[in-house]
Amino acid sequence: xxxxxxxxxxxxxxxxxxxxxxxxxxxxxxxxxxxxxxxxxxxxxxxxxxxxxxxxxxxxxxxxxxxxxxxxxxxxxxxxxxxxxxxxxxxxxxxxxxxxxxxxxxxxxxxxxxxxxxxxxxxxxxxxxxxxxxxxxxxxxxxxxxxxxxxxxxxxxxxxxxxxxxxxxxxxxxxxxxxxxxxxxxxxxxxxxxxxxxxxxxxxxxxxxxxxxxxxxxxxxxxxxxxxxxxxxxxxxx
Length: 238
Ligand SMILES: NC(=O)C1=CN([C@@H]2O[C@H](COP(=O)(O)OP(=O)(O)OC[C@H]3O[C@@H](n4cnc5c(N)ncnc54)[C@H](OP(=O)(O)O)[C@@H]3O)[C@@H](O)[C@H]2O)C=CC1
Ligand SMILES: O=C(O)C1=N[C@H](C(=O)O)C[C@H](O)C1
Hints:
This protein is of the alpha/beta class.
């Protein structure tokens, strides 16, 4: 598979290692300082693009790929206000687009169990539900994309809550997502149900970026030959 890497930071470099180990070819590496070179790539030389950049750049990169017939896998977070636009463009161009806030199989199992637990816990209003995410100091967006997906999984059952809120535990009508930034934390997500007498927790701790990279390469392999908008639930049958 001929892969174009868009974003050559922590994730781009980890994905490169994973892809080469699986026998794939990297046809290009686009980063901020050579971003203009993206226009040189087309479906003639690229089977799939894997995009991990920045909240402010992701939509433009994804749009370029969809407009030029390049199937695109994106893991960038913090840009989802434009997700509907990306979906529409994908439909219009009959393209292929795979998005996940988190490509790790373990996190997607965590999402699955999180939805199930929320569906049971919503009947027990003596428990207050909250989401907490902890990441490294370089992370630019808050809350994390994974934290938002976890919150949405809970809100599907908690119809009494009017959406989520970032770092505002006093706002009792909404589900709080608490964000913490600490050196060298790859990605930790914890859902807590607290009552006066006890606490139930479901959590996921990433030990490295290998799980994210492995999932992204798996998604790229899976996307080739498909048309439409997909996510991890489609690939993993969750
Ligand atoms: N879905 C998932 O499983 C995961 C998602 N992520 C998300 O992926 C994104 C990237 O994470 P990470 O690799 O850790 O971040 P990094 O900051 O390490 O890397 C991002 C890279 O993108 C580059 N970049 C900035 N603008 C452009 C542009 N216009 N075109 C191409 N490249 C550009 C940056 O360059 P420069 O440094 O010069 O700005 C940088 O090298 C984040 O949104 C993060 O939240 C991260 C891990 C897992
Ligand atoms: O920026 C990161 O590092 C990560 N970002 C993703 C997110 O925002 O959920 C996924 C992972 O937690 C690492």
